[in-house]
Design brief:
Layout lengths: L6 H25 L3 H26 L5 H14 L1 H23 L2
Helix pairs in contact: 1-2, 2-3, 2-4
């Protein structure tokens, strides 16, 4: 059996997401006033990643099955502008490093 075929995995994930939703929302609301100090990587991971995944999962699990809710939550996180910006920056750094290496720098 694969992990995504195990009903216990989905039950435990749903419980986890329900339990963390409110405290995470409170934390993110408090932290948001400092978002400029956190930097794009932190914003992407905390707000665009964890925040979006937890909130979207809890919203969509009510409308569909847990596996589809998780896939939708991942897609929402992936489409977040902060996440895209972070990923773009990572690609730029990797390319710049490769070019430097090719030039012998």
């Amino acid at each position: 059996m694969k992990w995504n075929e195990d009903e216990e995995v989905w039950k435990k994930l749903t419980v986890l997401m329900e339990v963390v939703k409110e405290p995470l929302d409170d934390f993110l609301s408090t932290l948001y006033k400092y978002h400029d100090d956190i930097g794009i990587e932190g914003q992407a991971m905390i707000f665009g990643g964890i925040g979006n995944i937890v909130m979207a999962y809890n919203q969509y699990v009510k409308e569909t099955n847990p596996e589809q809710a998780l896939a939708t939550a991942f897609q929402i996180s992936h489409n977040d502008g902060r996440v895209k910006k972070m990923m773009g920056h990572s690609v730029e750094v990797a390319i710049d490093n490769k070019v430097k290496k090719m030039k012998g720098e």
